[in-house]
Amino acid sequence: MSEPRILTGEHLISGNEAVAEGALAAGLQGYFGYPITPSTSIMERVIKRIQKIDDRISFVQMEDEIASITAVAGCSWTRKKAMTATSGPGFSLMQEGIGLAGFTETPLVLVNVMRGGPSTGLPTFPGQQETMQAHFGSHGDYLIPTLVPSSIQECFDFTIEAFNIAEALRTPVFVLSDQIISVLKERLIIPEADEIEIVNRASPSNPKITFKGEEIDVDFVPPHNAFGEHEKSFATGLSHDPSGHVDLSADNYEQLIDRLHNKIMKYQHLMPQPDLFNIDDAEIVLVAFGSTARACRRAMILARKEGLKVGTFKINTLWPFPKEQIEKVEQGRKILVVEMSRGQLIWPVERYVHKHVHHLAYYRGQIPTPSIILDKIRKVLGGDNK
Which residues, other chains included, contact 354 with Cβ-Cβ below 8 Å and sequence gap of 6+? Predict the structure, then answer.
């Protein structure tokens, strides 16, 4: 029995299932992956669904994660929307391929469901220890948009956003989930197909595209001359000009690196912006993302009941970091960074607020509970700087 590609309506499903549905709704045409906990159910949902969809969607379970990211990039160069999903060690194995995809301006989506690490670490427990790896995992200078959902609805919505950003800006895009979000079940509302914005990358014959009502500047994002189309196409990991031809000159390399960075920064405002709660009168602001942001939201509510003036700054796009927004929110307030890491999120926060901030580093393979966060809030407001 066939099913529609987009399952409009209300559903009670997990975060990983919502990611798969978001990919299908965005126009997924190729999935290449390797099973690894806790991301595997994304792949399982995709293969289950595509067998019931009339559209042609390629699926291959690869021999490892190195092959997976390479296959996704190759599929994308045939003008197909492609993705993979992984966790922990798999994300590490993909880094060289990620660097190549970034340098060749290859649109693709990579979902990384974070768990405790390093190495095998805690395969079935949550972590947020790939915060910096998402930015600096591969060698060289590059910037990859990184979206961080904290609910099942956002797993669906942000996956669609990831595909649209990838297509509009010709770049890999990460979706960083975590083990808590991956298995959590909540209500998901999938809208009608005509209510979902779908972006398809520019081509030499159609160089002008729009994303969220804004035309993408071809000087920043050259049209994609995919394999088998128009004139001969070129893709190389060497320094190259906008057409893909090798150019190792100093001036060209500097211009290329700058353009790859600037095209992301130019359109940062089109990516999911931070959610701010109770900021106006806040004396302390909790900064977090993913499942940790959920605990912070509850801790804020409990603190407010005690008369403590607490706000939350929920990050939705981790990279590029929401520099301007965090600077505006700081305004002399105390900042408390809450993360499931020994100290990765605190680095960009302190860099952009230009001062020491308070920190709750919780790296126990567990999410910090609202009561733990509330206790830390009380200590900070009481003058305890530890």
Answer: none
Residue 147 structure tokens: 């979206």
Using the structure block, give the residue that is written with the tokens 């990983």.
16
**172 preceded by a cis bond (ω within 30 of 0):** no
Q: 345 and 265 share a domain?
A: no
* Residues paired with 214 in a beta bridge: 211
Q: Tell me: do 116 and 52 sit in the same domain.
A: yes
The number of helix segments (H) and strand segments (E) in the chain equals 13, 16
Q: How many domains does the chain have?
A: 2
Q: Would you state the structure tokens that stand for residue 191, as one six-digit string? A: 């809208």
Residue 27: what are its φ and ψ, rounded to 5°?
105, 25
Residue 300 CA to residue 370 CA, distance in Å, equals 8
Entry field: residues in the chain: 386
Which tens digit of pLDDT belongs to each residue from 2-37? 899 999 999 999 999 999 999 999 999 999 999 999
DSSP, collapsed to helix, strand or coil, labels residue 187 as strand
Which single residue is written with the structure tokens 């200078």? 141
Q: Is-contact 55 27, C-beta < 8 A?
A: no
Assess whether 264 and 296 both reside in one domain.
Answer: no
Q: Are 29 and 160 part of one and the same domain?
A: yes
Q: pLDDT for 249-277, tens place per residue?
A: 999 999 999 999 999 999 999 999 999 99
Single-letter code of the amino acid located at 160: I
Confidence of residue 228 (pLDDT cuts 50, 70, 90): confident
Residue 138 is classified by DSSP as S
- The HSE-up count of residue 329 (CA atoms within 13 Å, CB side) is 28
Whether residues 97 and 12 share a domain: the answer is yes
* Shared-domain flag, residues 264 and 293: no
User: CA of 349: how far to CAs of 106, 287, 313, 358, in Å?
Assistant: 30, 8, 11, 10
For the full predicted model, state whether its pTM sits above 0.90.
yes
Tokens of residue 156, six digits: 């669906």
Q: Which of helix, strand or coil describes residue 151?
A: coil
